[in-house]
Amino acid sequence: MKIFNQGSIRQVLLAGILTAGAVFASGCGVEGGSTGESSTSNKIDTIKFADAGWDSIRLHNEIARTIIEEGYGYKTEVMPGSETGSLIGISNGSLDVYMEIWTGNFFDQYNEAVESGDIVELSVNFDDTKEGLYVPTYVIEGDPERGIEPMAPELKSIHDLPEYWEVFKDEEQPNKGRIYGSIPGWAADAVLEAKVENYGLSEKYNYFQPGSDTALNTSLIRAYERGEAWVGYYWEPTWIAGMYDLTLLEDNPYNEEEWMDGYRTEFPSQRLTIAVQKQLPEQAPDVTEFLRNYETSSEIVSHSLAYMQKNEASTEEVALWFLQEYEDLWTQWVPSEIAEKVKAEIQ
Question: How confident is the model over 291-302, as pLDDT tens digits?
């Protein structure tokens, strides 16, 4: 979800970080750590996972919970909350594990929490995220099986878009093309609005803001299924990136100076990390070691989310599918005896 969210700026919630965290923590109703025990306790009964609200983190939660419950014998729970509220949850001990932290969304706050020891970073879940302006690949290459001819055969970069504005004509204002932007309130929206202006795209295109991620998805899927032209914001990993053949338009190579001067580069890829509350390494050293080894990729996550969408499967069902499909991967995360316990329970 991400949809920097889904490398990525997906939501701008930083202004409300303290409020969100306070609400989240009070909603947990826990004192002195996630188990309700004293902060000095070396025991933990239930490991609480942060659900910050998008599909990929929910998938990682279910994969990790299955391994922890079936392999290590701990109880687990999932606590829903916001992205920033989840970060504060593991900072104050009301949550234990945050499986997919989009660190670029609150770079300073995250690094301060790690440096102060309030949270412990265990692993980089994956760091090959992508986001920016995408087109269906058939727009560039065509699709002979569907009888689609190339519409913009030389389109490679975001800077090529002015040449092809008529391909992406805005039906409501046909004197310009339409770029489907990010969702209002997501940080990517501010980035793309600045890009459209700074790259001179506003002379040829209208920047259209869908009202929700569902509306954005619907516009892309409808165009794709009809074989029509579409250009707009998207990101990886997502189920759509796993199901549909999309091409990310090139942009200027990332460098911090130009990024800070009007976002005049490609989006930087983010480190999506796994972090825990500071007591968990003592409370559950075996689980902590497992999470230190946990590592996937954007491609694996997109593939898994596409499976979920195609099969209308629940997150729990996809987690079981993942443990069978990627057995060679996850069995490297745990000792062999733990792997055997898990395999015995899921087959």
Answer: 999 999 999 999
